[in-house]
Amino acid sequence: MSSIQDVLGEIEGAAVGPIAAAASAVDARRAFPVESIERLGELGALGLTLPESAGGLGGGLTDLARACESLGRACASTGMVFLMHSVTAATIGAGAGPAADAALSAIGDGALATLAFSERGTGAHFYSPELSAERHNGGVRVSGRKSFVTSGGYADIYMLLLQGEADGTADAYLVEKGAPGISFEGEWTGLGMTGNASVAAELEDLQIPDEARVGEPGTALELVFSTVAPLFLVGLAAVNVGIAGAAAGAAVEHARNRRYPDGSTLAEVPAIQHMIASMDTSTRAARLLVQEAARLGDAADESALVAIMESKVVATETAASVSGRALEVTGGQGYTRSLPIERHLRDARAGAVMAPTNAVLRTWIGKAVTGLPVP
Ligand SMILES: Cc1cc2nc3c(=O)[nH]c(=O)nc-3n(C[C@H](O)[C@H](O)[C@H](O)COP(=O)(O)OP(=O)(O)OC[C@H]3O[C@@H](n4cnc5c(N)ncnc54)[C@H](O)[C@@H]3O)c2cc1C
Which residues line ligand 1 (CB under 6 A)? Predict the structure, then answer.
């Protein structure tokens, strides 16, 4: 079996190769990046965060950040699908139960997984699900809708977050694609990340056996805050550093090659140099913050929580500001599809509103820094 460093190197190679080459078509057609995800499967990348005991690579936050930055730079939709899969794989690994074991083994064989947490009603507060199941047939039965399920209809395994029996608790269940009672509605019409298929899951009398629960009854929120949150926040931050890097890189290339009739280049204009300096500085600062947050998280340092939350806020805001500045550098040409800037600009808008949203995170950071409980 390949080492984790080998696989990370392969991911970076595929990211600058076929995954980057497919990104523009994925975006223009709003197509799920089937080939790119298959390529990641062939490389063993879908086992990055799967525990070694389940045949995975056992990667941590630092490894996830490295993979997510290179994928986010190449194709943000692929980066999102990979991120949701990797977070789900690690969360199943951190839980336990018969369904968890079977799912880990399926993921080891190439199955794609994702999280179905969000609901229309609770929105940004996905950790307080309204959907509740009733006891039925030796298990539970649930009807309702989960919104924004990345890879909806494409993933093989869905982790559903439902209200627990005791007040203020939640349970996580694993449901397979094609199970009677789960279907996927509509098309993803989001501004950016156009290939990530974040559609709604319709649940109609979905019967779930007790064995499909991950972990003990009522313990899912511990998994959400101890495993889902750090991996998701660092991974999403890294995807956004990738988007910022891609936007800055495309703007620099354009500035070097765009020539005026007198032979001078755009790169020689001082105002453009200042904008490029600002893009480069803020992308580097965001990358260093994400790497530091990942390192603290991997070391289980007590300051990790704040650093991880801050890294998501800073990286997503950096992606938005850098891609906006890249548009100024590239002008009207950047506003068209002749350059990838407009794609990066749209992709960069998702991060701030993905839960925990930046507004909610600011509240949590303020609470954590002043010693108040989070959330
Ligand atoms: C591209 C994409 C992919 C996604 N993938 C998934 C997925 O795979 N699985 C999944 O479960 N979900 C996913 N989501 C859902 C996402 O994480 C959010 O839960 C969802 O976007 C919340 O949307 P809402 O409009 O209902 O938020 P609302 O709750 O209506 O919030 C609207 C705004 O108000 C602010 N706000 C609300 N309450 C507070 C508060 N107390 N303090 C401060 N500000 C507040 C929020 O920050 C937000 O900006 C995805 C979303 C996107 C955009």
Answer: 84, 114-118, 123-124, 126, 148-150, 190, 193, 196, 198, 350, 353-355, 357, 359-360, 363
DSSP state at residue 95: S
User: Which amino acid would we find at residue 38?
Assistant: E
pLDDT tens digit string along 93-133? 999 888 899 999 999 999 999 999 999 999 999 989 999 99
CA 169 – CA 85 distance, rounded (Å): 24
Give the model confidence (pLDDT) of 304-351 as tens digits: 999 999 999 999 999 999 999 999 999 999 999 999 999 999 999 999
Q: How far apart are CA 274 and CA 270, in angstroms?
A: 6
Give the pTM: 0.97
Q: Strands of 199-209's sheet, edge to edge?
A: 134-136, 139-149, 199-209, 182-185
Strands (E), 164-245: 170-176, 182-185, 199-209, 213-214
